[in-house]
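agent> step 3/5: call structure_predict on target 'Peptide ABC transporter ATP-binding protein' (Aeribacillus pallidus).
agent> reason: downstream docking stage needs a structural representation; sequence fetched in step 2, passing through unchanged.
tool.input:
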Amino acid sequence: MADLLLAKNIKKIYASGHQAVNGVSISIQKGECVGLVGESGSGKSTLARCLLMLEKISEGEIFLHDQPLHKMTKREIRKIRHCMQAVFQNPAAALNPKRKIIDSVMEALDTHRNICPIYLQDVREHRELCAKRLLEMVGMADRYLYRYPHELSGGQKQRVAIARAISIQPSLIILDEPTASLDVYTQGQILTLLKELQKQLELSYLFISHDLPSVHFLSERILVMKDGAFIDCFQKNDIFSQARHPYTKMLIHLFEG
Ligand SMILES: Nc1ncnc2c1ncn2[C@@H]1O[C@H](COP(=O)(O)OP(=O)(O)O)[C@@H](O)[C@H]1O
Ligand SMILES: [Mg+2]
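tool.output (status=ok):
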């Protein structure tokens, strides 16, 4: 089966001359959650932005559904970009403070009117019902539809960002530290929600975090990034294997306290 996403030898050198991503390759299959863990500054967000084509890569190739994103014009990228959705660390920044929740949730569906996910088939023609269904899918009551972001908690805002990300049934969702700004209790709730949605909707995730336990909870395959490179890659069940890289062992030790 063809890879959903295939990135080969990605390099990113910033204008400052700093090489943030140092030739990494990654493949993600349909329905798979790949975890990416690494300390702050290791290049995780840079790689995420490169894969999302928000940042121009210095070298390498990116294929989504076998289509070469690195060769596309801006216009072509705009057409295909919705296939990849993203959820970032700061949900407050992801939502327009002047727009009601319904308008943020419906943003992608309003733009891509021809897209109709299976789970919205019966309500696609009815904007309010669509938004209501999406909020329901992320565990939020419909009374929030006409509220503004500042009236919601951090966890609720992140739920709205997730609702928007799943709204057009994307091929891949890149989650860059989606729980890092939340308290520990809310982190657990959001991780559980993400896991349920992934199973239910057969979503593909690239889940990025500096927190190994979160990555382990959600991912089937785990990549460890350090100084812009992948230094370890393993299946979830092999986390305690002797074959792990010393750095991975150090991360494990850190969380075992
Ligand atoms: N826009 C930028 N310009 C120059 N350097 C950057 C930029 N963004 C990030 N960096 C640098 O690239 C490195 C990796 O950053 P980042 O990808 O944000 O890491 P992470 O997400 O793992 O914390 C860091 O040294 C950071 O300072
Ligand atoms: Mg980051």
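agent> step 4/5: record observation. Residues 8 and 61 are 5 Å apart (CA to CA).
agent> proceeding.
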